[in-house]
Known about the structure:
Layout: H1 12-21, H2 36-47, H3 53-64, H4 75-80, E1 81-83, H5 87-103, H6 111-123, E2 127-128, H7 130-134, H8 139-149, H9 156-162
Antiparallel strand pairs: 1-2
Helix pairs in contact: 3-5, 3-9, 5-6, 6-8
Amino acid sequence: MYKRQDVHHVDRGTLERIVTERRRGQAPEPAAAVTEADLEELFAAVDRVFLPRAVASWLSRVVAATHPSSDEAPEVVRQYVRFGASPRAAIAIAESARVHAIMGGKANVGFDDVRAVAAHALGHRIALDYKARLDAVSGRDIAKGVLDAVSEMEGAEGASRRA
């Protein structure tokens, strides 16, 4: 199945560098932006960011709601989605939310951190039905609809009792 990737506008300077530096399809030699030790330190810092059970529960319900057969799937999913997001989407959202939290100076992931990254992670992990293309509905539109439809607090009481 062919999947179209959205490529955002590239400025003239970037385009000029591409056509002058990428001769015969060869990319310029890469240069390290950080050292291996710096990268390990960054990963360790992200690993220390706590993901509360209530936030993890909501994140899991959001990903589950991207499947048309799910009881929690909103109408937009039932109408336009052929295949929902995989468990890898939940992992990507959790890790990205941890990074978002630490960039905001927080030690814990909040619902706001998940909301900030989820549409980006889900948007390309949902396989849309042909009707979505006909109606100009994108994966990101679906993701935003799911985020709005799935309550943050529903099921949070049970999640905190299980902790």
